Structures are given as C-alpha cells and as structure tokens.
Automatic annotation (TrEMBL):
Pfam families: Ras (PF00071)
Name of the protein: Ras-related protein Rab-15
GO BP of this protein: protein transport
GO molecular function: G protein activity; GTP binding; metal ion binding
SMART domains: ARF (SM00177), RAB (SM00175), RAN (SM00176), RAS (SM00173), RHO (SM00174)
GO cellular component, one term: plasma membrane
Length: 212
C-alpha cells in the first residue's frame, strides 16, 4: 500500500504530572477533552498527519508520565525525539519552576539537534493563574524557545503549538531533506508496527487508568 506521508518525526511531551499533557495530545489528535486526571503510566503515544509546505509529515507524539517514579522509563525516549514540547500549568507555579530540571534532563539525554518549544497550558483558567504570560515568555526567551499559552479545555493554541514544533523540526532537517526521506523509511515502518501493536511501556505493578 502506498505510504500516506513523506516523513515521520517523533515528538515528546514533558512536564510535571497534571499540567495537561495527555489532554493537549487528545485535543490535538482526537478533538476531545476530559476533565478527569488519570495519570499516564510510563509512556503512551498518538499519531497525527500534518501537511507543511507540501510535505506530508506523520508525527508520532509520545506522552510521558510526569510522575517522578517513571523518569527512568521516560528518559529512554529522549534520544529518539526530534522535537520536545515542554509543558507547565499556568495555575501551578511549581510546574513552572520545575522546567529547569526538565530542560537540563533534555540537555543531557536528547540529541543536540532536538527542537523545543515551551507551552503554558490551562490559559482558560485565568482566575487561578500563578504564572504570568510575561514570565512564561521571558523564560522561553532565555531558553531560545518559541512560547505558547494553550488551553486543551478551550482548544486554544493547541494546533498552533504542535504545528510550530513540527515546522521547527522540518526546518532543522531541511538541508538533508532528500536524505531524510530515505533514511526515515525504516523509522516509518517501525512506527507503523508500533502503532498497530499499540505498544505501551507500563509499570507492571500499576494499572494503566488514563482515560484522558
Ligand atoms: N482548566 C483546564 N484544565 C485542564 C486543561 N488541560 C488539562 N486540564 C486538566 O488537568 C488535569 C490533568 O490533565 P492531564 O492531561 O491528565 O495531565 P498530564 O500532564 O498528562 O498528567 P500526567 O499523566 O500525570 O503526567 C485534568 O483534570 C484535566 O482535565 C486545560 O487546558 N484547562
């Protein structure tokens, strides 16, 4: 069967537990939102195809558990990522303060070329805001990242932020785009297999209950 896309990129979502990573991903890929928080166990992923500058890009987006106890598992995925979405919750200051740790882990474990953006989620919940837009924007500038405030709940800036990180990955690989098409074929096939099998990395001692 003819391939329905030209290249495949892997993106990784990182950030504290409860910032809304799973909800952002579900909003982006399925257009849905769930108000319950059921922590992701280990890692999970969803796929989406975008068309950017005439190139059909299949993105495999890995949703990682924010909980500390899964960090050993989730770090194994850093080195295969081409793009990272760092997420904090604008109503939760500690999730913003912990970004330094998430970023330094990526510096240590991810490839140098990895493209990154910063996202402050839950922008709909203005009443409970603890991190100003200016603080988010300044931190992003310090890290040299593009910045978005999003709401998975109100579906605000979700498509824009994911599209931006994919654009950045595409730009970063532009010089080698011809080679990229060839070299990613294996990845595409593997990804398809992974997709079919719905492989999930779970902690055997814990039941996976994420419904979001
Ligand atoms: N108000 C509001 N709530 C949100 C938004 N996004 C997520 N939530 C809520 O935040 C809670 C946590 O969302 P999740 O997507 O499960 O969080 P997570 O970052 O995936 O958490 P872990 O899997 O534990 O790492 C849920 O109760 C969601 O309904 C948003 O944009 N606005």
């Amino acid at each position: 069967m003819a391939k329905q896309y030209d290249v495949l990129f892997r993106l990784l979502m990182l950030g504290d537990s409860g910032v809304g990573k799973t909800c952002m991903l579900r909003r982006f890929t399925e257009g849905e939102f769930d108000t319950s928080h059921i922590s992701t166990i280990g890692v999970d992923f969803k796929m989406k195809t975008l068309e950017i500058d005439g190139i059909k890009v299949r993105v495999q987006i890995w949703d990682t558990a924010g909980q500390e106890r899964y960090q050993t598992i989730t770090k194994q995925y850093y080195r295969r990522a081409q793009g990272i979405v760092f997420v904090y919750d604008i109503t939760n200051k500690p999730s913003f303060q912990h970004l330094a740790k998430w970023v330094s882990d990526v510096d240590e474990y991810a490839p140098d070329m990895v493209q990154r953006i910063l996202v402050g989620n839950k922008s709909d919940d203005e009443m409970r805001r603890q991190v100003t837009t200016d603080q988010g924007s300044k931190l992003a500038e310090t890290y040299g990242m593009d910045f978005f405030e999003t709401s998975a709940s109100a579906s605000s800036n979700i498509t824009e932020s994911f599209t931006r990180v994919v654009e950045l990955v595409l730009q970063a690989h532009k010089r080698d785009v011809d080679n990229l098409f060839g070299s990613l074929d294996n990845h595409l096939d593997n990804a398809t297999l992974e997709e079919e099998k719905s492989v999930k990395h779970v902690d055997n001692n814990t039941q996976r209950t994420c419904a979001c």
